[in-house]
Design a protein that fits this description.
The complex is a heterodimer of chains A (247) and B (220).
Chain A (H helix, E strand, L loop, with lengths): L1 H9 L8 E6 L6 H12 L3 E6 L1 H9 L6 E3 L4 H8 L9 E6 L1 E6 L20 E4 L5 H12 L3 H4 L3 E4 L2 H9 L5 E5 H4 L2 H6 E5 L8 E7 L6 H12 L1 H9 L7
Parallel strand pairs in A: 1-2, 1-3, 6-7, 6-8
Antiparallel strand pairs in A: 3-10, 4-10, 5-8, 5-9
Chain B lengths: L2 H31 L5 H13 L2 H12 L4 H10 L7 H25 L3 H9 L4 H12 L1 H16 L3 H7 L9 H10 L3 H31 L1
Helix pairs in contact in B: 1-5, 1-8, 2-5, 3-9, 5-8, 5-9, 6-7, 8-11, 10-11
The chains are: A alpha/beta (247), B mainly alpha (220).
Chain lengths: 247, 220
């Protein structure tokens, strides 16, 4: 019996040497095929965890064993840096996100534009939690700038992160949503709905930063992955999937 | 189906169940037969995880096991890594979270024993340990198996505590229920459906086993 227990306890140690990536939820529709290319080239295997940037930063501060943190903004990697948990004193900018208004093809809003947000038929709008998700912060800023925040606030359906926001609209639980372009360009959402970009000057740029973590046992490999993600070839794939180059 | 999550969940539930029984049997013995005045307090604390929001438990465990507090830092020095966000952390969390599911059935099994049997054993000179091992346990085997099945199933279905103290790390803290949460978020509804059906089947089968045993007891 206790041999079996010992077996249960020890077996995973052998496989625990993968690189651990903490990735912002807007990367969930983008990264998997790109990470697969890296794995093929280097034979370094990656375990990715996709959550809101705030959740990941909090986990890192509480000891989560990640090697590389790719956030959807600069403030969360900076928080990790200020706690002395990163191996650099500045996050590396790797992409810039775009905020879009998305709705299903079967919704009443045929021609999407920013004015759709003023339509009284709009009863529910999915938004990512501005406290946890950089895209949620951008959504809040954009609506405030456009003077629509107060009238739309009661209609908000708040999701934990930007991937969940997309899920709320796609599943019909909200009529429209302010989501990431990366989600809108994903195969599923592309087939199910349509989008319009929010005016770029209505929100501060969603500049996405990454840091390698100091306590990582695989810093060399983590930097290797980060360099790979900063390469022009990957940059092109990012752009095709909704992430602009950072500069 | 996320095979790594399935394997991790089975490992977590098995390890938790075995360790928890080792704790719950002596604790239940003391609760059933002990005479201490503060017994109701211990009983209340042991039942607390049943009513407590998993996030409350998760929060305190995160604080206690993470690098931000003295006990957490001591654990890091002992184990070489933070216990939060590791398999060991999940085992600790699951043991506390499932404690009432072990203690309740075992305690009520012990309490239902006829006191004549225990008195007879004591008169014949058996000590506490011998009474537990040779009289009480064989007579209450069904309660203990019920506790084991409930602990196992409850741990399989855990979500809140795992999310708070484990995060969502593939292969080390991503259990089936977390994997399913991920699959929904990533629009993999078919996969989510398979995971959900499996979790549903595990819970249903566990309950059928438990109620099946009860029927047999009644007929016996």
């Amino acid at each position: 019996m206790y041999k079996f227990l010992l077996f249960l306890l020890l077996v995973p140690l052998a496989a625990a040497q993968n690189l651990r990536l903490a990735a912002a939820a807007d990367l969930q529709p983008v990264l998997p095929p790109i990470l697969a290319q890296f794995e093929n080239q280097t034979h370094i295997h990656i375990d990715a965890s996709y959550q809101s940037s705030a959740t990941l930063a909090t986990q890192i501060q509480n000891g989560a064993p990640f090697d590389l943190f790719m956030a959807a903004d600069f403030s969360f990697p900076q928080r990790v840096i200020s706690e002395g948990l990163a191996d650099a004193d500045q996050p590396v900018a790797y992409a810039r996100g775009t905020l879009v208004l998305w709705t299903r093809n079967d919704s009443p809003f045929r021609q999407l534009s920013v004015d759709t947000l003023k339509d009284p038929a709009m009863k529910t709008l999915a938004v990512a939690n501005p406290e946890h998700a950089p895209y949620g912060r951008a959504a809040e800023a954009s609506l405030k700038k456009l003077g629509l925040y107060d009238q739309l606030k009661p209609k908000f359906v708040i999701a934990e992160n930007i991937a969940q926001t997309a899920q709320y609209v796609d599943s019909g639980n909200a009529q429209a949503g302010l989501i990431s372009l990366t989600s809108a360009l994903s195969e599923r959402l592309h087939a199910n709905g349509h989008y319009v970009e929010m005016p770029a000057d209505s929100y501060p740029p969603i500049l996405q930063g990454a840091v390698v973590l100091k306590n990582s046992g695989h810093r060399t490999e983590a930097h290797q992955l980060l360099d790979f993600l900063l390469s022009p070839a990957v940059g092109k794939q990012f752009a095709a999937r909704g992430l602009e180059p950072p500069h | 189906m996320d095979i790594r999550a399935l394997w991790l969940t089975l490992r977590l539930a098995s390890v938790t169940t075995v360790l928890l029984l080792c704790v719950a049997i002596p604790l239940s013995y003391w609760l059933a037969f002990g005479k201490a005045r503060w017994r109701p307090i211990v009983e209340a604390v042991a039942t607390l995880p049943l009513l407590l929001p998993p996030t409350v438990l998760g929060f305190y465990l995160l604080i206690l096991l993470g690098p931000r507090t003295a006990p957490g830092r001591m654990l890091i020095r002992l184990t070489g890594h933070p216990v939060a966000f590791s398999f060991a952390g999940l085992v600790i969390g699951s043991m506390i979270y499932s404690l009432p599911f072990a203690v309740q059935p075992i305690t009520s099994g012990f309490t239902a024993l006829s006191s004549d049997v225990l008195d007879a054993a004591r008169l014949l000179g058996a000590g506490n340990f011998r009474i537990l091992a040779e009289v009480v346990l064989p007579l209450t085997l069904r309660s203990i198996l019920t506790a084991a099945v409930l602990c196992f199933t409850h741990t399989v279905g855990e979500f809140g505590v795992v999310l708070m103290i484990g995060g969502d790390i593939p292969g080390s803290t991503r259990t089936l229920s977390i994997a399913m949460f991920d699959q929904v978020q990533d629009f993999r509804y078919r996969e989510a459906n398979h995971t959900a059906l499996l979790l549903l089947a595990v819970s249903l089968v566990a309950l059928i086993i438990v109620y099946g045993w009860r029927k047999q007891v009644r007929h016996a």
